[in-house]
Amino acid sequence: MTTAQEDLLPTTRRALLHRIAVAQAEGRTPSLVAAVVRDGRVVWHGSRTSVDGHGPDENVQYRIGSITKTFTAVLVLRLRDEGLLALGDRLEKHLPGTAAGESTIVELLAHTSGLAAETPGSWWERTPGSLRPELSDVLGEQPFLHPSGRRFHYSNPGYTLLGALVEKLRGASWEDVLRREVLEPLGLKRTSTRPQAPHAGGWAVHPWADVMLPEPLEDLGRMAPAGQLWSTTGDLAKFAAFLIKGDDRVLRADSLREMRTPAAPAEAADVASGYAYCLGLEIRHQEGRSLIGHTGSLPGFLAYLTASVEDDLAAIVLTNCTSGPLLFTVAADLVRIVAEAEPRIPEPWRPMTEADAVPLELAGQWYWGTHAFALRLTVDGLLSLEPLSGKGRRSRFRANGDGSWTGLEGYYAGELLTAVRRPDGTVDHLDLGSFVFTRQPYDEGAAVPGGVDPDGWRGTGRV
């Protein structure tokens, strides 16, 4: 993915460079490399390093840790889209014989299975994967710490199970499936399970002295689907563009929207901070902006990928230190700098192309009781229901081809919207999951549940 530095103004580029320079200096990391993606293309790339000479570019590999989980989640959603599994299936149905067979696939994806966060025994991130050759070694004798489905509890072993599920249903290794179904179609030639030159070395920086210690670079074995991958800002830029818009060769846009939807109950502190976990993706709210992505860390490395779908902007930040700058804040700032300095120019308004097929009789103002709503027809063929006050339930609806519409998000997700007609074919009211929407508040001429008082509307003098 070519970096088009000229796409950004000099003042914007300087602000981006300043932000990563502060992060590298104050975070005391040997090197830091970053990229910004807009409209599917890299528009800025920068790096800072403690080594004199050439800094790392978009082709230098860093270990990306748990960003690997997002790749694994994509593989699982592909299996679902092909009809090979349902997200509500118990793991035992497809991968029998584990101690976690009662967990559902969606619980594993969303970290709500109740499984422990780590493996038993030695610290798996700093020891050879050969110490844990079987799933039983990853899970241990007591794999569950919490009741299934009740709380968000991040679990690395959970994603090891998902990797094993992929292997079972594909009849090939997780690594081979990942390469064939995701890396090659998206052109991620510098993403691999083992480091390929040029790559950064992993370092621990002493907390009280400006000295460093090399970290071991272990092969994680069975734990690979939870954190094995190495990648570059160039490759992760392509992956970020895919997470925003989808690619039918890998995963459809609607499946990616599902991945970006919160799926785990949040702790009170997470609610307050605007954090939620989805399906292999995190969502965070920062200064009024919704950001999806994932963090990554392994001894010697920190990584973060974040994206604002609304702004069509993404940022990637990679470092080679065990602890250092808070990369989510850095990445979020890179997105904010570009979004505020050079806001996205919207596409030109264009009319619908098949006006004769548009159900214009449904468009306009409707009332649910006394609550006023607007129903609009959009160029993408959807219906959009919004409260006129700006506050309240809203949703878009997809046509089903039989005159009904299905809600896509919010309170009305999955609910059916139908136009109920009179004998002469005109619309009497809209039925939305049993809620009646009429053209006037409690329209006496429509089939309002419970009827309408025959004396009609009145002032205080008639109470």
UniProtKB/TrEMBL annotation:
Pfam families: Beta-lactamase, DUF7586. It comes from Streptomyces sp. NBC_00180. InterPro entries: AmpC-like, Beta-lactam-related, Beta-lactam/transpept-like, DUF7586. Residues 357-439 form the DUF7586 domain. It comes from the Bacteria. This is Beta-lactamase family protein. Residues 23-339 form the Beta-lactamase-related domain.
